[in-house]
Write a structure and sequence with these properties.
This protein has helices at about 10-25, 40-55, 70-75, 90-100, 115-125, 130-145, and strands at about 1-5, 30, 60-65, 85, 105. A 5-stranded parallel sheet has the order 2-1-3-5-4, with helices on both faces. The protein is an alpha/beta fold and about 160 residues long. α2 crosses α3 (about 70-75) and α4 (about 90-100) packs parallel to α5 (about 115-125).
């Protein structure tokens, strides 16, 4: 699978571990940085990675920052991205099965490298269940495209 990964300085060490892990499992990995623990701004890095997932250049994305909150906010601003901040295997699997998440976000100050590998494996192994879940994902896409009644009024 083609996977893009990106982090800010707070998640650099975890990113390095996950890049090696993904490659060892046979995945093609695009590392968008950052490439050191020197302070940097997560919005630009996260946005570039999320855009690659939205464009379907990469099937999935992994974003990391200290809390995971900033990267989640950035990624979910990109039309076509459904990013899920997960700290447990079952939640990660459910985010794919129910919400068809295509970006997994980690909080580097919460998950250990060992735990992150388990969560990532669970997420990568999960498949969207379709059925009633597909209907709900379709509703998310409509909201994202401002297709619901009243959305045009709320754009101001």
């Amino acid at each position: 699978m083609r996977i893009v990964i990106a982090t800010d300085h707070g998640g650099f060490k975890l990113k390095e571990t996950l890049v090696r892990f993904l490659k060892s499992k046979g995945h093609t990995v695009k590392d968008m940085g950052t490439f050191s623990e020197e302070a940097c701004d997560y919005p630009v890095i996260g946005y570039k990675a999320a855009k690659l997932v939205a464009a379907k250049s990469y099937a999935r994305g992994v974003l990391i920052c200290k809390t995971g909150i900033g990267m989640s906010m950035v990624a979910n601003k990109v039309r076509g991205v459904r990013a899920a901040l997960c700290d447990r295997e079952d939640i990660a699997a459910s985010s794919k099965e129910h919400n068809d998440s295509n970006v997994l976000v980690f909080a580097a100050n919460i998950v250990t490298p060992s735990k992150a590998k388990k969560i990532l494996s669970s997420w990568l192994g999960a498949r969207h269940l379709a059925g009633r879940h597909a209907r709900r994902v379709s509703q998310i896409k409509k909201i994202e495209g401002f297709e619901y009644e009243g959305a045009k009024k709320d754009r101001s």
